[in-house]
Amino acid sequence: MSGTVRPSHHWGRRLAAALLPCLLAACGTAEPARQARPAMWLVADDDTKIYMLGAMHALPRGTDWKGGKVAEAVGTADELVMELSPAELAKAGAVFQALAPRTAPLAMEKRLPPQALAGYRALEASGGDFGGDTLDDWAVMVLMGQRVAQNAELDSSDGVETRLTERFKDARKPIGGLETAREQLMLFETLDPKTQRTLLTRSAQKSGDAAKDVGALTAAWGRGDVAALEKVINEDVDAVPAARKAIITDRNRRWSAWVQKRLEQPGTVLMAVGAGHLVGADGVPAMLEADGLKVTRVQ
Hints:
Layout: H1 9-16, E1 40-44, E2 48-55, H2 68-76, E3 79-84, H3 86-99, H4 114-125, H5 137-151, H6 160-170, E4 175-179, H7 181-189, H8 193-206, H9 210-223, H10 226-237, H11 241-262, E5 267-274, H12 284-290, E6 295-297
Helix pairs in contact: 1-3, 1-5, 3-7, 4-8, 5-8, 9-10, 11-12
């Protein structure tokens, strides 16, 4: 792939998964969890139910996660809400192309220490030049994640949001989003240069372990093991506090406020967001509980 990104589902959902320098880990190789039962929570009042499903934006083929309580939530929900609506996802490639270029080229040899540079070059050699010299650090990281996904023959068309979108479109039910494509990309574009460089360096250093990391991540997700999910995610993001605040905590706070506002309207909603947003002390369920709402783990 060249240093630009075509508007497509592939990169948009991959970036949505970039909660962590584990962007690469979210795209590695893993055995399908044939009967995956991902964690899901419910917050409700007298006339409103909001199911919160932890999603994986890309999954190995054959992973069956649509049974259990998820099937019930999908069947009863009046609407689907994801990080990006289908309309915003369609804009994402063009937004990336506008934001990703640097004002002046900078060679990767001047950005990365030897070990990280070796990992970057090995990944680049597996499928062609990234054009990274002309791109911001965060954008290079996104393209690296894409390459790992391509090499592992993973595709976001097998991810949770893609399948849910198909179901809700077929049922003629509305599909909304919590963010715009530009808002989501600006989370990365506006990270300070030191944080961007740290994220890129860690991703390049860890690129050789992507398959192992995603194996742990996908297995924990499939078991609904929130403690293991939190551990896998936190091992990376806790090392980059500025990224954690911008990409996880602050967004979770906004999404928690959205849930509380949505409870004022009757109906049933299925909210599907990256699984990392729903675990830990700064996950959306924990934030809602801290505000006095009853949150029930239903799967």
